[in-house]
Amino acid sequence: MTKLKVLHADIGGCEGCAVTFLRAIPLIESIACAKTRYIGSDFKIEDCDIAFVTGSICINDVHALEMLKNIRSKAKVVVALGSCAALGGITRFCRGGQEPKPDHRVFQPLSSVIDVDFAIPGCPPPPQAVNALLIAYVKNVEFQLRLFKAVAKVKRLSGFDLLDDVVLPGLCVGCGACVLSCPTGALRLIDRRPELIVEKCIRCGTCYVRCPRASQILVRRFT
Amino acid sequence: MSLLPLSPKKPLGEYIGVYLSRAIDPEIRRQRVGSGGAITAFLCYLIDKNIIDGAVTVRRVRGLEGEVVVATTKKEVLEAAGDKWSIIPFTARLRDTIEEKGLKRIAVVGLPCQIQFLGQMRMFPLLESDFSERISLLISLFCLGTFANEVMLSYLRSKYGIKPSDITDIRLEGENLSIYHECGKISIPAREIVYHLQTGCLVCTDYTGVLSDISAGISENYLGYTVLIARNNRALELLNNARDEKYIELKEAPPSVIEEISLKARGKMERATYYATRLL
Amino acid sequence: MNIPFKAYGKELVRIAGEAEFLALHDGDKVVKAYFISRAPVRGFESLVVGKNPIFVVEAVMRICGVCHAAHGIASAEAFEHALGLLPSRHGLLLREAIGLVNRLQSHILHTILISQDILRPELHGKMVKMMLSFLEKVNSIMLKLGSAVTHPPAIVIGGISRPPTEASFKEAQRILVEVVKSVSDLRDSVLNEDNMNEHIKVLKKIRAPENFIASHLFYGDRYNISLDKVTVKHYSEYKPMEDDVDREVAKKTTTLIALYDGKKVEVGPRARLSIYRGFNAKSLFDVQVARIKEIELITFRLSELMDIIDISAPLRSGQIVFREGEGVGVYEAPRGLLIHKVALDNEGRVRKYRIITPTMFNVPIIESTSLGVPISIVEVIPRLYDPCIPCTTHLIKLK
Questions:
Q1: Do A126 and C149 touch (CB under 8 A)?
Q2: B233 in a domain, yes or no?
Q3: Residue-level pLDDT, tens digit, chain C, 399 residues
């Protein structure tokens, strides 16, 4: 089986997801040939089968926008890896007004600018997520990929969306998946229903994607 | 378009085989009502042979609250084993509990929603702190829904004057749900339970827990046996070994059983569609 | 205006983040050098204004996915200073341990990035593999102590939350013993003369000036440096702006520069080891040697800490009161001196926040050390100093 040509590019995140990709390289060795800025002498955006893009896109940064569009034109499949790329994540709180580039005001998930094929939330996701996606893609395990296709279409997810879409309409069964999915520990079960510690929510969206009810809603609405 | 490998054509999900099984040890069978105690016996096999170092489930305790229960010896498995009506979805303390006890290979017995979460975590870990490498086996029970605590509690309080802290146990006995409390027991016809289910359960499409390794439930026509669905080769191998080691009986289920559970599964999917259009 | 020199400019690979390096040379040696960061400015200082301190500590860790814990610790220290809180002793020790594990993560990552520059070609694939598996061991310690491999939520104002269980802590100690062994292997490979390539020989001959600052060897100390001597400038205010290239670069770059007492200073492992361990570090290659030595030193200190820490002791001081105050947290991040300054309004929310990162100090150092260096190896110089671009693109001018 010929290996997939896989590329990783970062367009302005914290590099946490980029490190995730670097750590994933030994895991995906047998099915993919990976190129990243972290290894080698030169890095160019070139034709590839799958491009993993990390970091959110700064709408005001022409250089970043060009790079992102370039990636889309050269990759058959684009995967937004990590909450910033998939859903905006912590950069949803960005305001701009910072020297030396006060005009860098708006940071959005990649799907605001290009078509994204799959989006994987997580702050950051572990290397195994990269491996899992590649395997699911190669074997075309539809039901697994459907969820990440849906995440690629939704514009934002946070603990608040979980409360609004699942708990308030009475759809929560108290399974606790959300509590085990929060990287900052912002969710806890009180009286068998999730309670959000508002100041700990960094809007990574992982809780929503792991909730059995919320993920059902996602797939219904977006695929 | 489903999130799970589930559809009206495949209401039971992907599987290798459906079996009728029961515990060989009569002591285990005696405790059961309706099922054949096969899962209890199977867990004993897994623990005896050190294939797992703990069996984890969550059950109702006093006052209908949930508690993670870990069994690391055969004796504890027998004590923890109980009716499925006492199992509730509640994974919040799961990671801490297995971390505290230093368990490295557990079998989780749960309801489809928990198993969906843990199964998806296994397929696609999204956090470094995901612990799917500690989960050796996922066992799902067939489920049509769990109680809404508040509804059940307020019903019991208003109709029978029973306080939540008085409730000691809940068990399905024949056609009735028996609620044991400080001063005795009351029975509610099982048919009425549906009015007390959690609303979230009504939109669930998964009767058997399609992301599990093994699913277990009962068939109305074969009471005294556990219906087992083996979903992959490893699960089947373990079941066969448990049979060879004389922990369980295992035989292929007749088509009528498969028909029956498929019918129930489709019914749940239809119910889900009905409520989904109204609730979502 | 004509530039009399040739230009060697490229987008730097194998650094944390996006940056370009432009060197003007005369065919042989570098005459002028520019380090241009290109990552967009996410602006964490303005992001946190008006927010609850609990949010801020979680948020600032996400400035950088490599030195995450450093930001969390510096931020927690700043809030504790502003609110007059003293964390409990064991909370501080555990926090120091988490910070040191993060430093290990960062240094290991850096070794992966730079190995191609300093080792013989046939060795570097093996080195990357070895370091990646070493990193996984260190990551598992971080997972146990900090509750997450990246952005450990255990770091909170007042100490540490979600401490590991006894079993977990013992397991972390066991893995640390393995790590100590791996570190000797690492040191022997990287510092082994037989394994080095020709770049090293050149780097060893180049003298790197010794103006250092470091607040502490293992943690940080706000009383050990004069904070009023730290100034932050625009690139355009710092560089002479003599020609078009100067002006072009100043427009493009997304970072600011930090100076101490009006002068450029080096921060990082070489600074720490020189000041606190008397490390005799004169050549450019010593910047890398210091980092490797620091890895060893960290493992010793970590072992010490793990023996002292009592996780059943109170690890978090209670009673966080939200009120007005001003504070500063000074911490030695993996790359050097890191400063977080906070001012709170009367409801205890952030009124003003300033972050000064180590790479801001090192950018002028990278540029000046490159002068006179053979063009063939000039690309290695920025990498030696381990710049962290996500960190530098979050700062506002100090008023």
A1: yes
A2: yes
A3: 345 667 777 778 888 888 888 888 888 888 888 888 888 888 899 999 999 999 999 999 999 999 999 999 999 999 999 999 999 999 999 999 999 999 999 999 999 998 888 888 888 888 888 899 999 999 999 999 999 999 999 999 999 998 998 889 999 999 999 999 889 888 888 888 888 888 888 888 888 888 999 999 999 999 999 999 999 988 888 888 888 888 888 888 888 899 999 999 999 999 999 999 999 888 888 999 999 999 999 999 999 999 999 999 999 987 788 899 999 999 999 999 999 999 999 999 999 999 999 999 999 999 999 888 888 888 888 889 998 888 776 543 332
- Dihedral over Cα of B75, B77, B83, B86: its sign: positive
Mutation site for A-interface testing, chosen from C46, C54, C62, C239 by largest number of A Cβ within 10 Å? C62
Rounded-to-integer distance, Cα B259 and Cα B275, Å: 24
| In a domain? residue B5 | no
C62 vs A: CB within 8 A = yes
B56 touches chain A (CB under 8 A): no
CATH topology classification for C6-312+321-392: Cytochrome-c3 Hydrogenase; chain B (1.10.645)
B77 with B153, same domain: the answer is: no
Residue B260 falls inside a structural domain: yes
Of C143, C165, C167, the CB nearest to B129: C143
Over the Cα atoms of chain B, what is R_g? 18
Whether residue B137 is found in the same domain as residue B22: yes
CB contact under 8 A, C147 and B129: yes
Chain A residue numbers with beta carbons less than 8 Å from the beta carbon of B198 are 172-174
**Separation between Cα atoms, residue A162 and residue A172, nearest integer Å:** 10
Q: In Å, how far is A55's CA from the nearest CA of chain B?
A: 16
CB B143 within 8 A of CB B127: no
- On chain C, the residues whose CB falls within 8 A of the CB of A20 are 150
How far apart CA C364 and CA C370 sit, in angstroms, is: 10
Separation between Cα atoms, residue C305 and residue C288, nearest integer Å: 26
- What the block records as the tokens of B12 is 């039971």
User: Best mutation site among A137, A144, A151, A175 for testing chain B: the one with the most B CBs within 10 Å?
Assistant: A175
Same domain for B154 and B264, yes or no, is: no
Is residue B273 in a domain?
A: yes
Q: Which of C13, C54, C128 is opposite residue A41, by nearest beta carbon?
A: C13
The boundaries of the domain holding residue B157 are 147-196
The partner residue sitting opposite A180, judged by closest CB among B92, B116, B199, is B92
Q: Do the Cβ atoms of A126 and B125 come within 8 Å?
A: yes
**Are B142 and B152 in the same domain?**
no
Q: Which residue has the tokens 């070493």?
A: C134
d(CA C128, CA C347): 49
What 3 state SS string does B122-158 have? HHCCCCCCCCHHHEEEEEEECCCCCECHHHHHHHHHH
Nearest beta carbon to residue B89 from set A169, A174, A220: A174
Token readout for B206 is 């998964």
Chain B residues 60-79 within an 8 A CB cutoff of chain A: 66
- Note whether B129 and B214 are same-domain residues: yes
Distance from CA of C310 to the nearest CA of A (A): 23
Do C9 and C21 touch, CB atoms closer than 8 A? yes
Interface ipTM: 0.91
The count of other CB atoms within 10 Å of the CB of residue A40 is 11
| Rounded Cα distance, B60 and B151, in Å | 16
Query: Does one domain contain both B121 and B29?
Result: yes
Q: Do C40 and A61 touch (CB under 8 A)?
A: yes
Report C:282-301 residues touching A (Cβ under 8 A). none
Shared-domain flag, residues B131 and B241 = yes
- Domains of chain A from N-terminus onward: 4-151 (3.40.50.700), 159-222 (3.30.70.20)
